[in-house]
Amino acid sequence: xxxxxxxxxxxxxxxxxxxxxxxxxxxxIPPRAELGPGVLSGELNDHRWQIDIGxxxxxxxxxxxxxxxxxQLVKIHVQSPSGGAFDLQTxxxxxxxxx
Length: 99
Fold this sequence. Notes:
Layout: H1 2-28, E1 38-44, E2 47-55, E3 69-79, E4 85-95
Antiparallel strand pairs: 1-2, 2-3, 3-4
């Protein structure tokens, strides 16, 4: 029975961590018009989160091209109070800066 209790508690921690990660993605990533390189961080329900936004490699901006979007790598890290962690990487397209 104690093994079942530990297993249930472990699943509860995992669900809490995933919910915190989802909330961080929804509230922490700025809207596309405001998205730019940098590091954002915060805390939700005792879970710490950090979002690191930066270029996805080099060479995406080609001079005199009509490409209006460039990809940005978005790394999300969420840490629970018990020490569990979740990492996610995704790509967001942002408007190319005017030249």
